[in-house]
Amino acid sequence: MNVHVPSPPTKSAAEPARWAVWAAHLTTLVVLPSGLWRIAMVLGFPAGYTAAGFVPFETLGSKAWMLTLSVLCELVAFLTIGLVRPWGEVIPRWIPLIGGRRVRPMAVVAPAALGAVVLTALWANAPWWWTYPHEDMTPTGHLLVGILYQPMVLWGPLTAAVTISYYRRHRAAQRLASTA
Questions:
Q1: Which of 4, 66, 105, 136 makes the best surface tag, with the fewest CB within 10 Å?
Q2: 89: domain range?
C-alpha cells in the first residue's frame, strides 16, 4: 500500500546575515543578568536590598512573580532566535495540528516589530537608574542592580534589527518568487 507523505516545505528565504544571528542570540544574554538577580531574590538573597527593603520580596506571591517574570523574559527573548532559525519559517512538526506549515512572514514581523517598540520604550530609562532614589537598597546594591539592568536597553533595538533583517530576507524571497 503506497502512502503519500508530503515533503516538508523548503525554506523560502536566504540565510540570515551573521550579524543578525549574533544579535538574535545576544537578546537572550541581555535579559539574563536581571533574571539571575531576581532568581537570587527568590532564593532568599537580599541581592542589594536592606533588611527592611527586602521584606516585601519574601512573600510567596512576590517570589512567584519574580520567578515568572524571569522565565517569561527569557522565553520572549528566545523567540527572537526564531527570526534567524528555520522554526521562524516553518512551524516545527512536533506542534500538534499546525506542525509543518509555513509561517506567514507578516505574522512574525508584526508582533516582533511591536515587541521591539514596546521593549525599547520600556527600558529607555534604564541608563538613568542611578538618578532615581532607591532608599530600600544598600549603596552597593544600588550600583549592582543598575549595572545588571543596563543590558536591557539593548533588548528592543536588537529585536528591531533582527526583525528588519527577517523582513528584508522574506520580502526579497517573495519578489524573487513573483518574478519567476
A1: 4
A2: 18-174
Residues 91, 81: Cα–Cα separation, whole Å: 14
Task: Fill in the amino acid letter for 37.
Answer: W
Query: CA–CA separation, 172 vs 16, rounded Å?
Result: 12
Could you report the per-residue pLDDT of 90-114, keeping only the tens digit for each?
888 888 888 889 989 999 999 999 9
Half-sphere exposure of 123 (CA within 13 A, CB side): 22
Asked, for residue 4, whether it belongs to a domain, the answer is no
Q: Are 78 and 140 in contact (CB under 8 A)?
A: no
Residue 131 placed within a domain: yes
C-alpha cell at 16: 540570515
Q: Is 58 exposed, middle or buried (0-12, 13-18, 19+ CB in 10 A)?
A: exposed
